[in-house]
From TrEMBL:
This is Rhamnosyltransferase. It comes from the Bacteria. Residues 14-96 form the Glycosyltransferase 2-like domain. Pfam families: Glycos_transf_2. GO terms for molecular function: glycosyltransferase activity. Keywords: Glycosyltransferase, Transferase. It comes from Glaciecola nitratireducens (strain JCM 12485 / KCTC 12276 / FR1064). Belongs to the glycosyltransferase 2 family. The lineage of its organism: Bacteria, Pseudomonadati, Pseudomonadota, Gammaproteobacteria, Alteromonadales.
Length: 293
């Protein structure tokens, strides 16, 4: 059996409906985990769909874990994770699962496979500047990390690696899990010939000739904090630590001076830096109750 879990947060109803309809035609069971304040009206009558609503927003890590655990209980062998703003082809699940099954038959140590991501803003394939290819098995390329949307996981190997780190809440969750899998001698891979259109960030901006992702102010809290939290962990790649810590001042300047909602962004970044230095985890609302009113 193949299952899927789609994570929602105040989604565009038309885009979400199309994605869910497409996924339902390709999997045996679908878990929809909704972190929106109000429940999303899906209007889809099928026993294949299991809906979970968390109005307080439990974070993407816990939402994914809810889906993964339920798919395990239901007897699924493989689980596909998707964000609400991804677009997949009608044969996406079949092609991705075929590669994962083949890797298992060939005794390749692969725990998860994802597609080549096409950025919906640039309509171009996303190519990491620093990440290097580790190993190539015909149509799959082993890398250090992949994003969670489009990631298909071999559930038989999940218990050893563990579930997603809920203390991170959102940013860095997918990469941390991939790096942790490496400590158990598992690898993650990209399907070289399978593509998926995905929205990365809310918008794009340019500073000093460099185009960068622009997200909501609250995301800056998790981005800044989680960089400092993950930098403490030995299994996190040195190149990732170095690159992200070095660009922190530039990101701080760009968000504090060049973007809208400057004061709000400034406050969230300061809170994130403080909590990162003091090793605080979980949600912003738990750590800064008075400031979240």
């Amino acid at each position: 059996m193949i299952g899927a879990a789609i994570i929602l947060y105040q989604p565009d109803s038309d885009i979400t409906y199309r994605l869910i309809e497409s996924v339902l035609q390709q999997v045996d069971v679908l878990c929809v985990i909704d972190n929106s304040p109000m429940p999303t009206s899906l209007k889809i009558a099928t026993k294949k769909l299991h809906y979970h609503h968390f109005p307080t927003n439990v974070g993407i890590a816990k939402a994914q874990n809810v889906g993964l655990k339920e798919l395990q209980v239901l007897g699924c062998e493989y689980a596909l994770l998707l964000d609400q703003d991804s677009q997949i082809d009608p044969d996406f699940v079949f092609r991705l699962s075929s590669l994962l099954v083949a890797s298992k038959i060939n005794e390749q140590p692969i725990i998860a496979i994802g597609p080549r991501v096409i950025c919906s803003f640039s309509e171009k394939a996303v190519k990491p500047r620093v990440q290097r290819e580790i190993l190539v098995y015909e149509d799959i390329v082993c890398v250090t990390q992949i994003i969670s949307s489009g990631m298909m996981i071999d559930l038989s190997k999940l218990d050893l690696v563990g579930f997603k780190d809920e203390t991170l809440f959102i940013d860095g969750v997918d990469h941390e899990w991939c790096w942790r899998a490496r400590t158990h001698d598992y690898m993650v891979a990209i399907a070289d010939k399978i593509e998926m259109v995905h929205r990365l960030g809310d918008a794009r901006s340019k500073f000093a000739g460099v185009t960068y992702k622009v997200g909501s102010p609250i995301r800056l809290y998790y981005q800044f904090r989680n960089i400092l939290l993950l930098a403490r962990r030995g299994y996190v790649p040195s190149y990732w630590k170095t690159r992200n810590i070095l660009v922190l001042p530039i990101r701080f300047f760009a968000n504090a001076l060049l973007q809208t909602q400057k004061r709000k962004r400034f406050r969230y970044m300061l809170c994130g830096l403080w909590d990162g230095l003091t090793n605080k985890r979980g949600s912003f609302s738990d750590n800064w109750k008075d400031n979240n009113k």
